[in-house]
Amino acid sequence: MEKIASFTVNHLNLLPGVYVSRKDTVGQEVLTTFDLRMTAPNREPVMNTAEMHTIEHLAATYLRNEESVKDKVIYFGPMGCRTGFYLILAGDYTSKDVLPLVTATYEFIRDFSGEVPGAEARDCGNYLDMNLPMAKYLANQYLNRALYPADEKNLNYPND
To answer: Can you tell me the distance from the alpha carbon of 6 to that of 47, in angstroms, rounded to the nearest whole number?
Structure first.
């Protein structure tokens, strides 16, 4: 079998950032998959499931309510390696195109207070596995390390 595209990225040189992972065409529509890499793979600790689960609930809620993209959001969810998230949008986008949206999403998470949306037994299959304080901490870290100072190294996969 051939390696899938995401396994050909050199994770030893990958920094936290916003990357176009792939573009697929379904009918007439382009779907752009973004790699929202929050930690440096294989060099930093991975995120725990509780904070990832909280980020997932908050980001999905924010994105699906954001007027500019709510009808274009196909998916937001965690990477199995626990170093970031995938965001899939209907449309042909670059990392620079979505940087303001991703920044606003993580600012929402950083600044969120109250009950996490969907964190009740009837709404979620693992509602007790949440950690809002750590999710807020990680969102702030991602903003300051990768999103606010974003440049080519945080927006394009490494060449080697």
So the answer is: 19
- Contact 89/115 with Cβ under 8 angstroms? no
What is each CA distance from 2 to 5, 6, 14, 110, in whole angstroms? 9, 12, 22, 39
What's the rounded Cα separation, in Å, for the pair 25 and 51? 32
Q: E strand or H helix at 20, and its extent?
A: strand 17-26
Dist. CA 120–CA 108, nearest whole Å: 20
Q: In what order do the strands lie in the sheet with 73-78?
A: 17-26, 29-37, 84-90, 73-78
Can you give the pLDDT at residue 9?
84
Q: What is the mean pLDDT of each run of 10 residues along the chain (160 residues)?
A: 82 95 96 98 96 98 97 97 98 98 98 97 97 98 98 91
Token match 């950083």: residue?
Answer: 110
**Which residues contact residue 100 at a Cβ distance below 8 angstroms, ignoring those fewer than 6 apart?**
none
Q: What ranges in 25-160 are assigned the alpha helix state H? A: 49-63, 95-111, 132-142, 152-155
Helix (H, G, I), strand (E, B) or coil at 74: strand
**3-state secondary structure at position 53:** helix
